[in-house]
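Students often ask why we bother encoding 3D structure as a string. The short answer is that it lets us treat folding as translation between two languages. Here is a chain of 503 residues written in the first language.
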Amino acid sequence: MSLTLYNTLTRKKETFTPVHPPLVGLYLCGPTVYNDAHLGNARGPIVFDVLTRYLRYLGYQVRYVRNITDVGHLVGDSDEGEDKMAKTARAQKLEPMQVAQHYTVRYRQAMSALGCLPPDIEPQASGHITEQIGLISEILDRGLAYEVNGSVYFDVPKYNAEGLNYGRLSGRVVEELLANTRAELAGQDEKRSPADFALWKKAAPEHLMRWPSPWGEGFPGWHLECSAMSRKYLGAEFDIHGGGLDLMFPHHECEIAQNEASGTPSTGARFWLHNNMLTVNGQKMSKSLGNFVTLNEMFQGQSAALSQAYSPMTLRFFFLQAQYRSPIDLSDEALQAARKGFRKLMNGLRLLDSGKLEARSGEPAVDADKLAANSQQLLALSKKPFEFLSDDLNTPRAVAAVFDLLKRFNSLAASPAALAEVSPEAVAEASAAYRAVVSDVLGLRDEPRASAEDLLALALGFYQEAKSEKAYDKVDQIRTALKSQGIVIKDTKTGVEWAYSED
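And here it is in the second language, the structure alphabet:
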């Protein structure tokens, strides 16, 4: 089954063929770890987690790289101003690396809760300064960058004059960029052209994060890290580069320019994939509108924008209900519908585990042609989700196809006569397909919805009731059942208590 993906670079769907099959190199732009991740930050990791899972399901050996930005990302995404990491560190009176470590740990915990597999490599920008300096030197050697007062800038007009095309990914025209750029921008006098961007910035005396370089003490530009790290771990030419639509320009555009201006020119990735954005109740998420929601706030029900808490798997399933290139709007109603759909799929897994779809003895013989036809129909249903996943990772249609398959399972489980009209082999194959798409590819897993404390309190209530009724057989049953779970019941003068068994 061939996989097609929409390549932003060519603006069309293309059949995916790896550079070095069966190996696949996939790079995803990770977080700038100066704050907690918000709901919008979750969409990209979920999309590319599903893509990674599906590529592995298809038999590819995927090396999945997702970076951590802990230096170089300036406020406002510009070439001037304060580093986002340093700004948070200064406000909290911490070392920048303390901030980075704190929010990196929280980000990984959130991604794990959302069912995202950890990347194979998770490089940090601050740990790859040497590689970034080396890449700058290559670009300088090509004559496509210049140094000014300890800073190094990429020369966009010269890059274009060599027949290259800055703007090819986003469709932007350099002349239009120049027309829309104010010449009075701070630091603009250092640049030869307003379209140029920083590869290395000289550190001001008060700048907290700095490293030695051939051009003096400073720090790398934001765009440089992803070029340097993707090339280090995936090669000059690799398969897939992912990220949010908001990163297409300038971040990914600059990455491609840096890659092509290096000593081993290429666009970097053959396929550039971009997931669309999230809105909340029809509006862009922002703190000023009061609808800015972090992942932890959503999981704990601490957001004023939502009426209640929603689980990580509910959010994951919510994102899967839209094709990754389409925008998606989050609301209480949409999340409640997602929760219902997610639980229905989990009930499907429970049905497969129940044995209700196993062949039963005593049913009358079935016509061979009818058996074959019904079996083929079930197998055709089981293949549909994968057909849609292979069509540019169309998860909403894949999910709809899974529900169609589940509907058929439910009808077979309810009717022994109907189940007898399908071969056990077809049922087993379709069941395996259901498990594969739900658990292995979509990455959905069951979540505990009951509180252990509440269940224990309920059991103790039954225990007290049985004692008061002198139903000692039930008393013993409850004691034995709890003991098997490592819990002992203690009858005291003040009432019934429990403790962990020390046996």
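Translate back mentally: The chain has a mean pLDDT of 92. Keep this in mind for the problem set.
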